[in-house]
Task: inverse folding
């Protein structure tokens, strides 16, 4: 393995490790201290609810994961964010395996599926349109 490849792989591993394992604790520490000492202590009702820093941290450790799971679920179920479709479209466009490799490989299977559906009297107009567009885009022939 050459040096350039090792550096690129290391950069990928760093992004994964930091993003998945280190960013949450680092961000949580910054969040907890800044919110508690700048906001909670200065709002009488919140100061009464969380008289000490550790009670705020414990409450946040329980509340934030539940809120994050709910918001993530809502995002993927398209309840919260209309941008999910655009996110998926960009992921597919950026992934060469999805477009240049998987699509042409799946084309014969789509043709067989269309023929089987026609034999059983199922409308295949939509599938035939997908097959036609795929053949036009990738130059696939029967």
Result:
């Amino acid at each position: 393995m050459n040096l350039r490849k090792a550096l690129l792989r290391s950069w990928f591993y760093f992004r994964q490790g930091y993003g998945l394992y280190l960013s949450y604790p680092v961000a949580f520490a910054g969040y907890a201290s800044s919110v508690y000492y700048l906001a909670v202590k200065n709002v009488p009702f919140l100061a009464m609810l969380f008289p000490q820093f550790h009670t705020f941290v414990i409450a946040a450790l329980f509340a934030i994961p539940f809120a994050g799971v709910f918001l993530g679920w809502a995002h993927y179920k398209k309840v919260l964010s209309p941008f999910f479709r655009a996110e998926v479209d960009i992921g597919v466009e950026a992934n060469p395996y999805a477009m240049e490799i998987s699509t042409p490989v799946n084309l014969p299977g789509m043709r067989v599926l269309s023929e089987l559906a026609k034999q059983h009297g199922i409308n295949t107009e939509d599938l035939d349109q997908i097959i036609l567009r795929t053949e036009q885009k990738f130059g696939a022939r029967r």
